[in-house]
Input
Amino acid sequence: MRRTAVLVVDDDAGFCAFVESLLESAGIDTLRAASAEEAVTMVRSRRPDAAILDVSLPGVSGYGLCRQLRDLFGPDLPVVFASGCRTDAIDRAAGMLVGGDDYLTKPIDPDELLARLRRLLERSRAWSKPLSILSEREIEVLQLVAEGMPPAEVARRLVISPKTVSSHVQRIMAKLNVHTRAQAVAVAYEAGLIRVSSGNDVTAHLGAISTFAALSH
Output
């Protein structure tokens, strides 16, 4: 099963190392970046399940990065701000207004950070639902569908019949509570279950998926 991953963005290497060690002890992967630009590039390859952002970043601030992450992933991604200098009430209020879910001041108590992060992850169950209900075979089928392969090619790759491929696709859509293959691919992509080979989002593949749908009828 895919491990939870948290994006940590801070130009303080010591703080990043502290958080990375803490998350590793809790069985959580760290996606580590020193700037907003680096972070945005990183999350296009792997969707984070939450983000911990320093407010005072070089270039684009943590507030600006939060807005970019919201544009990419919507409101379900938990975002925690962390700052050692922007600690006034007005700073915390600004963090909440731009879309943050929590605001911690440095030095941060490790137990408090983990507790708050776990609370936010538990509240944002949208990231975990597809992980627990799709089988490995269903994920394999959906990955090939996302790559635009027709049913016959999916069947050949997985050494199953085209009819079985169609059955898998129907079960996937029912489990994810969606009505089209494109919607299923979008949900799985957002959850980090599948990859797209080009472009910044899944929309570049919808034409190929529509072709799959036409060929499967």
